[in-house]
C-alpha cells in the first residue's frame, strides 16, 4: 500500500501510526522498521514499479560517429559529413535490437529542432502549477 | 548511454546497412496509475521513428524514454551537431 500510493514521509507516518492502533495491526517497533526501510529504499522501489509499468521498447544505448564522406564525381559534393547513429532498443526482459541510422547535417538540425520542442514541453510540464 | 569512442557502431558505414530517418514524431506522456502502482505520476517521452532502408522499404520504430534518458539523448544530438559542423 505504501509503494502503491507513493506515500511521502508524512503520509507514511500517519499510515503507520493508524496501523499500530488497529486490532491485529503492527507494533510500534514494526512501524519503525517499516518506516526506516521505506525511507532508504523508496527511490529504488519506485524505479522498479515504474519499470514494471513500462512495456514498450526502451532506449538502452546510443553510439555515434561522424564521417566525412568524399565523392569524387561531383566536386561540389566532396566532403559531405555524415553522422552514423546506432540505437539500441529493448523491451523488458528481451534481447536488444539495433537500428543504424545515417544523417547529414540538415537532418541532424531538423532532429535537434524537434528535440528542442520536446524539451520546451517538458519545461512547461515541470513548471509549478 | 554511451558517447563517442566508447563503443564502435556495430555496422560499417555502408549505405546497405544504415537506414535513413524519414520522420520523427514525439509525445510527452504522463503515466498516472497502473495495477502495480496507484500513484505513478511518471512523465515519459514516447518517440516514433519512420525509417527507410536502402531498398526504400519503410518501417516504424517506437520507443519510450524517461526524462533523464531524453535529456541524454538530446545532449548527444547536440554533440553530433557540433561535430558535424566542424568536419
From TrEMBL, chain A:
Gene Ontology, cellular component aspect: Cul2-RING ubiquitin ligase complex; cytosol; early endosome; nucleoplasm; recycling endosome
Family matches, as CDD domains: Commd1_MURR1 (cd04749)
InterPro entries: COMM, COMMD1_N, Murr1
GO biological process, one term: positive regulation of protein ubiquitination
Top-level taxon of the source organism: Eukaryota
Domain COMM: 58-126
Alphabetized PROSITE patterns for the sequence: COMM
GO molecular function term, any single one: protein homodimerization activity
Similarity field: Belongs to the COMM domain-containing protein 1 family.
Name this polypeptide is given: COMM domain-containing protein 1
Organism: Chinchilla lanigera
Lineage: Eukaryota, Metazoa, Chordata, Craniata, Vertebrata
TrEMBL record, chain B:
PROSITE patterns found in the cross-reference section: COMM
Transmembrane stretches, start-end: none
Residues in COMM domain copies: 20-87
Highest taxon of source: Eukaryota
MF (Gene Ontology): NF-kappaB binding
Family indicated by similarity: Belongs to the COMM domain-containing protein 6 family.
Functional note: Scaffold protein in the commander complex that is essential for endosomal recycling of transmembrane cargos; the commander complex is composed of the CCC subcomplex and the retriever subcomplex. May modulate activity of cullin-RING E3 ubiquitin ligase (CRL) complexes. Down-regulates activation of NF-kappa-B. Inhibits TNF-induced NFKB1 activation.
Entry protein name: COMM domain-containing protein 6
Lineage of the organism: Eukaryota, Metazoa, Chordata, Craniata, Vertebrata
